[in-house]
Design brief:
Layout (H helix, E strand, L loop, with lengths): L4 H4 L11 H4 L1 H6 L1 H21 L7 H21 L9 H21 L11 H12 L6 H21 L10 H78 L4 H23 L2 H12 L6 E5 L4 H4 L2 H16 L3 E10 L6 E9 L3 H7 L1 H10 L2 E7 L2 E7 L3
Parallel strand pairs: 1-2
Antiparallel strand pairs: 2-3, 3-5, 4-5
Helix pairs in contact: 4-5, 4-7, 5-6, 6-8, 7-8, 7-9, 8-9, 9-10, 13-15
Length: 396
């Protein structure tokens, strides 16, 4: 029973390397309003603090650069945390952090020679809260690295501004004053991200252990039911020939020919059933469950890649295909699974054609498309002529 766990449970990295939006997309989506609120609050904080300390501004040009960098960083944060956007890429995250670094440097240059109190600067505080806003979207390890980077930058800027401070203190103390806000809030963000991931992973492990136990208990009954169904089908095909032979009390050439034909048919049926791909089984099951929809469904998975996918991945495929069949006006659905040349997991392509414009199906599938963007490494949705095409790839 324990051997079945790896085939069911998805493979996860540790809590340090895992991103919460990959592990639990719903929790990341629920954090979106808080992220937007913090982003707007940080812009407001910077504006109010600049107005209050207007006498310390020595360079309006650098102040403008500071505000542009701040607004750009917050706009990127709000945009990349949208539910309908693909997962936040590493390159975009690096750009976000570099923008924060540029904002701190420009802020220091805008008050060069007139910054009376380094510990009251708003820029390190904004960076700290920005790190905390990233907890659902970046790994704890990445947050730890950038916390160190931003703390070092803020500390160096604090030392550089020591000459204009009203209080004479040793230079190392100015480094502490400059970077303490980033360090404290960033460390809290790292601890929170790791704690959340650890908690979710423990819950998931218990859930999968229970699922494996249930599957183990039900496996024998399911196998017995399948065997009984196949035996019943064979019996229905062979019974007329056997009844006729028993009635005539003789075996004729015609009986032998018919028996050979029935045996070949039964053999082909059993071989086909044994060699059916998972996508073919999915199509047959969905069509059998929805005969009133009259949706034509075609599938392609020559290597049966879906069979080796995790249960989580197959569940998402089934949910999208089922919802596509239920979408208003759908007349045909095509599912293709191929090996992805760029990722280690399978690549999925779903085409939905109907009597309605593709936008109707897109609107009906919008929630599941958002889930795919949260769970898959790559996800693209396009409208081609009269079809809605959904493509996504696993492998993270």
């Amino acid at each position: 029973m324990s051997a079945s766990a790896p085939s069911l449970a998805p493979r996860r990295p540790g809590p340090w390397a895992l991103r919460t939006d990959r592990l639990d997309p719903l929790s990341a989506a629920s954090a979106r309003p808080v992220t937007v609120t913090f982003a707007l609050a940080m812009v407001t904080l910077a504006g109010l603090d600049t107005i209050v300390k207007a006498t310390q501004v020595t360079s309006v040009s650098w102040l403008i650069v500071t505000m542009v960098a701040l607004v750009s960083a917050m706009a990127l944060l709000i945009d990349r945390t949208r539910v309908d956007r693909p997962a936040w890429s590493r390159g975009s995250a690096v750009l976000f952090h570099l923008t924060l670094v540029a904002m701190m440097v420009a802020s220091a240059l805008s008050t060069a020679g007139a910054n009376a109190s380094v510990r009251d600067d708003w820029a390190p505080l904004v960076v700290g809260f920005a790190l905390f806003c990233l907890t659902p979207y970046r790994s704890a390890r990445e947050l730890a690295v950038w916390t160190v980077v931003h703390t070092v930058v803020a500390g160096a800027l604090g030392v550089a501004q020591a000459g204009s401070a009203t209080t004479l203190l040793p230079a190392p103390l100015f480094a502490i004053s400059g970077g303490v806000a980033v360090l404290i809030i960033g460390a809290a963000a790292v601890a929170y991200a790791k704690s959340m991931n650890t908690s979710i992973l423990r819950w998931e492990q218990r859930a999968w252990a229970r699922a494996v136990a249930v599957v183990g208990e039900a496996r024998h009954g399911v196998a017995r039911s399948v065997r009984q169904r196949e035996i019943s089908r064979v019996g229905r095909d062979a019974l007329p020939v056997l009844a006729r032979v028993a009635e005539n009390d003789a075996v004729t050439t015609a009986d032998r020919d018919e028996a050979a034909e029935r045996a070949a048919s039964i053999r082909c049926t059993l071989v086909e059933a044994a060699g059916r791909s998972w996508v073919r089984e999915l199509a047959d099951d969905l069509i059998e469950r929805r005969p009133e929809l009259a949706v034509a469904m075609t599938v392609a998975d020559a290597d049966d890649l879906a069979r080796s996918a995790t249960l989580e991945q197959r569940t998402l495929i089934r949910a999208i295909v089922g919802a596509a069949m239920d979408a208003p006006g759908t007349r045909a659905v095509h599912l293709a699974i191929t090996a992805s040349p760029r990722h280690s997991g399978p690549s999925v392509r779903i085409e939905v054609r109907g009597v309605e414009p593709p936008g109707v199906a897109r609107e009906a599938l919008r929630p599941l498309i958002g889930v795919a963007r949260g769970l898959a490494r790559h996800c693209a949705v396009v409208e081609v002529h009269d079809a809605l095409v959904i493509e996504f790839a696993y492998g993270h």
